[in-house]
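Task: fold both queries, return tokens.
Query 1:
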Amino acid sequence: MDLGSRPSPFRLHYGFSLGIALLLGIPVEASQDHDHPPSSGDGLELRETQLEHVISSNGWTFMQDGMVFVTFNRQAKPMGSTEFGSQNWWMGMASRAAGSGTVTVRGMLSLEPLTLGGDGYSEIFQTGETYKNEALTNRQHPHDLGMQLTMAWRLPLSHRTSITVAGGPVGEATLGPVAFMHRQSAAQNPFAPLGHHTLDSTHIAKGILATRVDHGPLAVEGSVFHGGEPDEHRWGISDVGALDSWATRVWLRPNAHLALQVSHGFLKKPEALEPGNLRRTTASVSWLTESEAGFSAVTAGYGQNRRDHEASLSDAFFVEASHRFSPHVIYGRFEAVDVETGLLLGLPEHTGHAASVLALTVGTLRDLP
């Protein structure tokens, strides 16, 4: 087949976005959770973004967190497009004492099926998931309305040791770094990493059971979950499937500023249009320091996908950072990612051939009065 008339992914491309970010929180009687990452065990997901707290009189503790980006996005043609859209999510959590432990219910919602549409938003070199039964290329898929619905129970065994069990129809597998929208180093960046499907795409698993053991600065996690990516029906959870995949992850938090993780997992047929299974291995390190004026956060991570029907590997590496000095925020991300050239060139089948892409994202925000 002659590829000469097709757009080549090996040229320099650019993207530009102009946006407004709205932080969703409860301004009254609120305090900030500064744990990095939280080690309370109320949920298996290690989060870095700050949650707003309100404690009610009936023994329940309610928390919420959220973000809305309203963006003008211009990505270079012919691979990209120009469009308006909104990336957004909201998370709520309620917890209370239950016997000797703590029970936590967590829900996370997104209106991206409405604000972005079924094919998401333009992002050059991005791949993953489908739209109208075709592979999405040069676009980032929208998140489902239900991004998470889980319940967890944490039981302290001593002052240094605890065990947590969790599960639900939609949750986060114990694989990869903290999901990009919850990392302080990326929280103000409206765009998903190009390596999302090599690092943290299992933050939405349609069916999951998980457990975690904390002992001092060390945490060991394991989960079984549905390995298939969410389907195109973004408004429901009818695609909850068999617990056919597994993952394990180890966290080390030597001090309040530093967190390291390594993880490995098996995913059964994650992509609807791609044959076979894959094994994923990731490692990451995050650093966070906070002050009255703001914070500085840096995350570096590496991921590798090994597909059982191909002899080749695909790798992704990133370094990202955010620095807030109120009322300003500056952020950036560098990535080196293997992308499947056949998909980007419009070939009808997965060829397995990959090429490396280097990407740099920089941005700034300013709080309005």
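Query 1 returned. Query 2:
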Amino acid sequence: MTTKAFEIGDFGVNLVVTSTGEVQALDINTDAVDEASNLYFTNARARAALTVSGSLSYNSSTGVLSYTTPTIIASLSNHTTDSLAEGSNNLYFTSQRARDSLFAGAGISYNSSTGALGISDSGATPGTYGSSLTIPQITVNAQGQITSVTEFSLNSFVVEEFTGTGSQTDFQLTTIATNVNQLFITVGAVPQTPTESYLIISGNVLRFTSPPPSGSQVIVRFLGIPSVYSATGESVDLSGYATRVYVDTAVLALVDSAPSTMDTLNELAAALNDDANFAATVTTSLAAKADASNTYTKAEVDAMIDDIIEQIEALGGV
């Protein structure tokens, strides 16, 4: 191998040639070659060759590329809510926001911190009400809650009692009942079901569908006059009708403490000599009596008698 230095053109290079005459190396670089159409690299040329679009910005002097986050997304197809900042109208869901949007209405309790809903205390005392001797009266508010319960004793109602024979189904009532719902009936302290267990026939006959057991106590309590309906289905107002209790009380008040011989209309009429014009008769009779100016009082008569007796005694007696 032979190395020989020589000049090619205006610059010196080292040419390496093998023994066979082949050029193995030419010691030359771009520093020794003039630039032609194949331009050499420079930062300015590289920076000038770049362009950007969209959300990118570029400084060709410094070569700095920047990305600006867009405020408007052209398409949501490749985005989720995690990519979007929350606006002022369409807010993201949170448990607290949901709880804060709820409010408790009447009869409801609500804790907005925990989201727990409950039913407010209605004020009624928990317990079991009603028995064979009491009837519960219930007060219900607009929300359907029972707000109070009171009990009424059945002993305060008109009561009739019978004893079952084991075969008798009909029992005569002394109080007229126009509707089975007027009655509360127990057989051996067991409440009976209206229509199913008993019927009212002609207003004063209690008829059981099955005879009460022999020796069982049958208690009939009259609860008053219930709502009834006419044959055409119209409600009949019975508020102007009097119950037996009301009538009995009124009659007793009328009789008051009158003697037994004058506590009926017939006895009063007999005392007035059955005279329908008794007042006029008495007035006429009084008018026929002597005038007071022509009569003496008992005191005056007694004084005159005493005077006569004194005169007789003064004459020496008789």
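Both queries returned. Flag for query 2: The CA atoms of residues 279 and 285 lie 10 Å apart.
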